[in-house]
User: Which sequence fits this backbone?
């Protein structure tokens, strides 16, 4: 068991407000106020050198770290979306038979 996991368990036992469904990891703040994101989190979020992260803080001062999606992340997200060319007339109308996926999306979201 790694030191991070040992520290996580000790921390969880002391703090009854910690969500039991999450893991805790410890990282020290350097002289220049930098922190190292633990390996387990970098791996889970696919964070690589040069990526950006968001820090969110709620009203209880609990902090959440999320990866800012990269262009590659967005490309992967929409990779399997159907595509079709939609032609609009001068009034903004389209032919539902020529663009069935677009028509379905317009009607049902």
Assistant:
């Amino acid at each position: 068991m790694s030191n991070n996991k040992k520290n996580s368990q000790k921390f969880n036992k002391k703090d009854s407000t910690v969500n039991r469904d999450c893991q805790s990891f410890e990282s020290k703040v350097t002289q220049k106020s930098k922190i190292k994101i633990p390996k387990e989190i970098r791996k889970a979020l696919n964070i690589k050198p040069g990526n950006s992260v968001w820090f969110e803080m709620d009203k209880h001062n609990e902090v959440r770290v999320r990866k800012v999606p990269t262009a590659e992340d967005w490309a992967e997200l929409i990779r399997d979306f159907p595509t079709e060319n939609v032609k609009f007339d001068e009034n903004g109308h389209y032919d539902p038979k020529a663009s069935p996926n677009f028509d379905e999306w317009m009607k049902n979201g």
User: Anything to note?
Assistant: Confidence is low (pLDDT under 50) at residues 1-17. The beta strands are 53-57, 63-67.
